[in-house]
Amino acid sequence: MRSLFLRSLAGPQRAFAQPYTFQKASFQTVSSVHSSDEHPRVLITGGLGQLGTGLARQLRTTFGTDNVILSDIIRPDRDILNNGPFIFADILDFKNLQEIVVSHRIDWLVHFSALLSAVGENNVPLAIRVNIEGLHNVMELAKQYHLKLFVPSTIGAFGPESPRNPTPNLTIQRPKTIYGVSKVHAELLGEYYQKRFGLDFRSLRFPGIISYDSNPGGGTTDYAVQIFHDALTSGKHTCYLNPDTRLPMMYIDDCLRSLTEIMMAPKEKLSIRTYNVAAMSFTPNELFAAVKKRVPHLEIEYKVDGRQKIADSWPQVFDDSQARGDWGWEHKFGIQELVDTMIDALIPIYENQRVASEAKINHQ
Ligand SMILES: NC(=O)c1ccc[n+]([C@@H]2O[C@H](COP(=O)([O-])OP(=O)(O)OC[C@H]3O[C@@H](n4cnc5c(N)ncnc54)[C@H](O)[C@@H]3O)[C@@H](O)[C@H]2O)c1
Ligand SMILES: C[C@@H](O)[C@H](N)C(=O)O
Question: In what residue span(s) does the NAD-dependent epimerase/dehydratase domain sit (predicted)?
């Protein structure tokens, strides 16, 4: 897991070098291939991104290692392969997805494959393919094989016409990024399939997710991860958002727990199928001040880029009262717990790296 930590934080520049194959979804109905095992068998698509490996680790402790299969189109590190099943799965290759679901007797599909907001704006055709065509494949697959399906949505599914503080669960959604457009499409299609075909579709709109052992894939909220690494390395963070840009954020443990909780919730508790979930909201300036308390020499400069426009169209504060009321959602990490957890986890990682590189130099 730790080696994921070394993955480039380059974000928007991250390349998707693999070829994309697409085969049209076949629309015949096949019978369910439910496992009769005690635990569901779960497939996580796009599982080598920021959220997937942590979710696999969490679900494997509950369902058993072999029941949770990570998949992606990028090359896994050796410790990913050592920690449980991993397979290649291109979300655009419907036939291959069918084979995987049948051969591995999949019951739950957690669909993480996506191009995030900033990467999506830099490659709209690819975002349309991965985020929209990929979703169509997943929806049809879940319908054909009667899979329980989780598709994450995002604060980015709202736009400037939405109320921004707070943003309620049900309100105007006119997002201005291809990422947001694809997520509204996913929400609507999932809810339609649920009503029309009885598909067990569940979705949470996540805030920006912050984690120390996996890196973000090129979103608008990535600065809130990068600042921790900069604090413990160069001591200087260059922020691409204005100091007062308030956005909803969440520590990864809360995010993954909310996902597990909604997947396990009895369907009678779900009055809707797409919920806002929230934990905290802060600005770069407020996060900088909180990190500086732990790393007093940290400096910040602001060099605003195109991500500011995206952030300015997103919610500032998320109203998640419906998730709290329906299935008992509660966050555990506020900004103080977040900062302490991130710094306490990263200090030994960087210390070990320093010791290892000194040992290497002395050995030469
Ligand atoms: N991280 C966040 O802050 C956040 C917030 C809200 C919602 N989400 C959603 O959660 C999900 C996971 O996010 P993440 O942060 O792990 O994303 P990420 O960008 O880190 O990972 C996405 C993964 O999808 C994979 N992928 C790309 N094209 C693919 C294809 N053709 N077939 C299969 N896989 C492909 C990539 O290789 C990558 O590993 C996404 O749907 C995202 O929209 C994330
Ligand atoms: C907010 C979320 O969807 C993602 N981190 C992004 O910024 O694109």
Answer: 42-278
Helices and strands, counts by H and E, the chain? 13, 13
Res. 303: pLDDT tops 90: yes
Which residue owns the Cα nearest ligand 2 atom 1? 208
Verify whether ligand 2 is closer than 6 Å to residue 210 (CB atom).
no
* Ligand 1 atom closest to the CA of 111, numbered from 1: 41
101 alpha carbon to ligand 1 midpoint, in Å? 20
Q: pTM higher than 0.95, yes or no?
A: no
Token pair in block for residue 315 = 């919610």
Q: What's the Cα-to-Cα distance from 260 to each of 7, 113, 279, rounded to whole Å?
A: 26, 18, 16
**Placement of tokens 């029309």 in the chain:** 196
Measured CA to CA, the distance from residue 21 to residue 311 in angstroms comes to 33
Closest C-alpha to ligand 1, atom 11: 112
Give yes or no for residue 276 CB within 6 A of ligand 2: no
> How far does the centroid of ligand 2 lie from the alpha carbon of residue 119, in Å?
10
Rounded to whole angstroms, the Cα distance separating 107 from 102 reads 10
For the question of an ipTM over 0.95, the answer is yes
Q: How do strand 86-88 and strand 68-72 relate by DSSP bridges?
A: parallel
Beta strands in 229-345 (DSSP E): 236-239, 247-251, 274-276, 280-282, 299-302
What pLDDT, in 10s, does the model give residues 197-237? 999 999 999 999 999 999 999 999 999 999 999 999 999 99
Calpha distance 140→145 (Å, rounded): 9
Distance 214 CA to ligand 2 centre (A): 14
Write out the catalytic residue numbers: 179
Closest ligand to Cα 112:
1
